[in-house]
Specification:
The chain is mainly α. The chain contains 32 helices and no strands. Helix 5 runs parallel beside helix 8 and helix 6 runs parallel beside helix 10.
Length: 498
């Protein structure tokens, strides 16, 4: 059929070869027989046949994927094919169907890092690719999205353990090699060049598609861009954060997860009021809760907790939305996590959540929530101590919670150690908790005065350094209240003797 004089026969033959080369094992099986036929058809005078033959050669030339050691064609062949694709793509006189086929050819060839590097230098081809992707035809968006995914390295990469690589070498099995131009320094330069030609604006426009597969590709590229903190401001400025919210809410599981991760990274380092103004701030909560599910990776859990910590500090509406989306159960789950960083992130999030009266109410009654926070104040991890003491500094304004603190066995030693810590911030929080406990009633005040905490308060009240003025003030207020209760005499505060 390929040798027929009929253009229709040649077109059917070339499309059959293109579709038969869809799998790697099929490529290796037909490459010797198909390449000469496709080369012959590529020299056709008919563009429709020529561009299809080009895509077939691109498919066969890329069957090694990102493996730099797997070359199916002669050195430089893929670069020649890529150049031909870019020529078709950047030519506005060619009809959309021809440019679509050229785009599909690049979708395969851009697995090669050399092709990626050449493509980002060709601004005309990039602009044509973006313009082509914005067309209503869904069959164009997917290959165009695939090109951007390949260029930004946002495809899934298989982690190779060193032990498994050594084992494969010992068994004389082929081990894929990473191309030198796929390393981080080259990747970041490529992303910067893509941003300069308006990639974010294009992704925002493309994100309105209904295709779940295309939405996943767009989410992958967004995640690759915001992985570098320096690009997050530009993404927000050009409407990327707004576009990511629906991407994280609707689509396939992978796409929603990637979009949620991108939102989390933005929420961690940027002011949420700027990145997600108004109602949008509430809409971010659900994607963050999605990342807290136990089957997600630990890094996703961590980033989601950090993002929730940031947005929970803003207002009561956000905290109520977190409660409504059943986020508290997830946060508390990670407070018991063995992973130290997850435990800290969850406790920091709880520190902001206790600003809500509903969360305070959850700490009352028969449960160990307060006990856990008291025990965390006695840990060695500074961040964990700071988060737990911050939460209790707020919660201790409630009399019932103050009473629960005194039911924790080593509460005196823990608060005494915290108040004596060299870190001023921790000392201030301990002094604030003791002041709240003293104001909770004479009975709790008596427990403080009858313990070693009286001596600690005396020492804190004698500080003269300006840096610890707030600590001194809290200690003095606590002792003044003790005098009002008649637990100590006024001269005790002066002489330090009961």
């Amino acid at each position: 059929m390929a040798n027929s004089d009929s253009g229709l026969h040649q077109r059917v033959a070339v499309e059959a070869l293109v579709h038969s080369a869809s799998k790697k094992d099929k490529c290796s099986g037909i490459i010797k027989q198909a390449v000469p036929i496709l080369k012959q058809l590529y020299h056709s005078t008919t563009d429709n046949i020529k561009v299809r033959a080009l895509v077939g050669l691109c498919k066969l030339g890329s069957f090694g994927g990102t493996d730099a050691s797997a070359k199916s064609m002669a050195e430089g062949s893929t670069m020649t094919l890529a150049k031909a694709c870019r020529k078709f793509l950047a030519n506005p006189t060619k009809d959309v169907d021809l440019r679509k086929w050229a785009c599909e050819g690049l979708a395969y060839l851009t697995l090669d890092a050399d092709v990626k590097e050449e493509l980002v230098e060709d601004t005309d081809a990039l602009h044509s690719l973006i313009d082509l992707a914005k067309m209503a035809d869904k069959s164009i968006l997917y290959p165009a999205g695939t090109v951007f995914v390949n260029v930004t390295n946002s495809y899934d990469k298989q982690e190779m353990l060193p032990e498994m690589v050594d084992l494969a070498k010992f068994a004389k099995q082929h081990v894929p090699e990473e191309h030198p131009k796929d390393k981080e320094e080259f990747l970041q330069k490529r992303i910067e060049k893509l941003l300069k030609v308006g990639l974010v604006n294009a992704l925002v426009a493309l994100s309105k598609t209904d295709s779940h597969s295309s939405r996943e590709l767009i989410a992958r590229v967004f995640l690759a861009i915001v992985s570098e903190e320096q690009h997050r401001g530009l993404v927000v400025q050009q409407g990327g954060a707004k576009a990511l919210i629906p991407l994280a809410s609707e689509g396939n599981e992978v796409g929603k997860t990637k979009a949620a991760q991108a939102l989390a990274k933005i929420a961690i380092t940027m002011n949420p009021e700027v990145a997600f103004p108004g109602q949008r701030m509430l809409e971010v909560v659900r994607p963050m809760i999605l990342l807290l599910h136990i089957e997600k990776d630990a890094i996703m859990n961590y980033e989601a907790l950090m993002a929730l910590t940031n947005i929970a500090s803003l207002n009561e509406s956000v905290r109520k939305r977190i409660l409504k989306e059943k986020g508290m159960a997830h946060i508390e789950h990670y407070m018991f996590e063995d992973h130290e960083e997850l435990k800290v992130a969850a406790t920091e999030c709880m520190c902001n959540m206790v600003l809500s009266e509903e969360v305070v109410a959850l700490h009352r009654g028969e449960n160990d929530r307060v006990k856990l926070l008291v025990l965390y104040m006695g840990e060695e991890n500074f961040k964990l101590m700071r988060a737990a003491s911050g939460a209790l500094a707020i919660l201790s304004a409630d009399k019932e919670i103050c009473d629960k603190i005194t039911k924790v066995g080593p509460w005196v030693e823990i608060l005494g150690g915290l108040a004596s810590n060299e870190n001023v911030e921790l000392r201030h929080r301990a002094a604030h908790i003791l002041r709240n406990m003293m104001e909770a009633g004479e009975e709790i005040g008596k427990l403080i005065i009858e313990s070693q905490l009286l001596e600690v308060l005396m020492v804190l009240s004698r500080f003269t350094e300006p840096a610890v003025a707030t600590v001194k003030e809290c200690a003095e207020m606590t002792l003044t209240k003790a005098v009002e209760y008649g637990l100590i005499q006024a001269n005790t505060m002066v002489n330090g003797e009961p």
